[in-house]
Amino acid sequence: MIKVTRLNGKCFHINALYIDTVESLPDTTITFTNNKKIVVLEKEEEMVEAIIQFYRTVNILGFRNDVEEGT
Fold first, then answer.
1. Lesser CB count within 10 Å: N end or C end of the chain?
2. CA 1 – CA 55 distance, rounded (Å)
3. Is residue 67 included in any domain, yes or no?
């Protein structure tokens, strides 16, 4: 799960497995696989890092905690 913040400041968690796209429009908009969209305060780059960290945590797609990105 990834912690995100709505524009009103309320925090909640989303399941990264259901994220389809993350865009800056200019606010960061997350589109899920069911086409539902939410707008969050976090920057697009922060969301990408959080998604990568989530994948590493659950060992999806071969991402490992003990290997640096790009090596």
1. C
2. 10
3. no
pLDDT digits (tens, 9 = 90+) for 48-61: 999 989 988 888 76
The runs of H, that is alpha helices, within 1-71 are: 44-58
Q: What is the CA radius of gyration of the chain?
A: 13
Strand partners, 11: 5
Residue 12's alpha-carbon distances to 1, 38, 58, 64, 67, in angstroms, are: 10, 12, 20, 26, 29
The answer as to whether 30 is a domain residue is yes
Q: Which domain holds residue 20?
A: 2-58
